[in-house]
Amino acid sequence: MVRRLIGVGLGLVFLILLVLAFRGCLEARQDRGISNYTSDVSTIMTESEQRGRDFFDLLDSPGTTSQQGYETQVNGLRGACESLLDRAEALDAPGEMKDGNDAIVQTLRLRRDAMTEISDNIGAALAPAEQEDPIAKIADQMKKLYASDVLYSQVAVPDIEAVIQERGITGAADLSSGNFMPEGTAQEWLDPTKVIEALGGVSAGSDVAGGSHGLGLISTTLGGVTLDPAIPVIVPSDSNEIEVAVQNQGDTDESDIEVTVTVGGEPSTEAIPSIAAGGTETANIALQTLPSPGTETTIDVEVSPVPGEEDSANNSSSYTVTFSD
Question: Is residue 28 scored above 90 in pLDDT?
Fold first, then answer.
């Protein structure tokens, strides 16, 4: 009986140790999951803070950026905010982080929505006429961006840090970064007159410079063959990049020159960063879809006019091309 009791006692001790070890492993795994999640959130929010800094720097100091270039940059920031939201929604948040994770997703959704509205209205806001309504819509989005900062700093961060402290996790990523509006500027940007002044600066700073403006489509090359709008040509079947030479025929430097190539109804666009007055630069554009070998197809090439360009007749051309068998 004594031996049996000792055996049962040892068995119970072993079972308790096994349960404790299993529980310890489970808790360690949960802690790692929380640490990994916090690290992912920190990375996303740090990137979001940088996008906010880029946006407000653009508002504060437009420099000599053209209106077209300004719109392109705002559209790019909107796309970045949308990508960050997608990444946050795809996170595998631990159950204890549900409330904090919901606040993170909502924070980034507010920023995505605000930047989408700003992007949709920036072109009209920079137009020389009928600016008031688009600018008012953009100014109104500052409230949404400010709300995202409040939600992040007052709800998301405290909820996540509370779980970390409660579990005694050490070495978790720092969540101090993440505000979209630059520190100490919220009240300034919530004033609509500040937005009006900033966008007015863009309009004033991006007026058409003096001198003549004009571009010319000089040549188009595909697969080593120079295309001729008057003569159908045959190019190698694996020709998948088209080279478009563009000349600045004015006496003013130009920037952000868009070149669009359309093959089979599918457009592809690349931008030439700048072309000095009288200079020539080349856009190398990858073709998304190649026609079947032996099929005759039309390739359209168009160079977008620059501000102040009065005659864009030589900015585009069409070519008849057959990809060899």
Answer: no
Find out whether 256 and 281 touch, Cβ atoms under 8 Å: no
In the chain, where does DSSP find H-type helix? 2-60, 67-89, 98-126, 132-151, 157-167, 186-189, 192-205
> pTM for the full model?
0.57
pLDDT digits (tens, 9 = 90+) for 236-252: 988 889 999 999 998 88
Looking at domain 2-205, its CATH architecture is Up-down Bundle (1.20)
**DSSP class of 262:** E
Q: Which CATH number does 215-323 carry?
A: 2.60.40.10
Distance, in Å, from the CA atom of 140 to the CA atom of 160, rounded to the nearest integer, reads 30
Residue 105 has phi, psi (to 5 degrees) of -60, -45
Taking the CA atoms of residue 100, residue 104, residue 105 and residue 107 in that order, the dihedral angle to the nearest 10 degrees is 130
Q: Dig out the tokens for 156 from the structure.
A: 């998301």
The count of other CB atoms within 10 Å of the CB of residue 257 is 22
Which tokens belong to 86?
């997608």
Domain boundaries, the chain: 2-205, 215-323
Alpha-carbon torsion, ordered 67, 63, 51, 106, to 10 deg: -60
Classify the C-alpha dihedral 296-227-264-298 as positive or negative.
negative
pLDDT tens per residue across span 29-39:
566 778 888 88
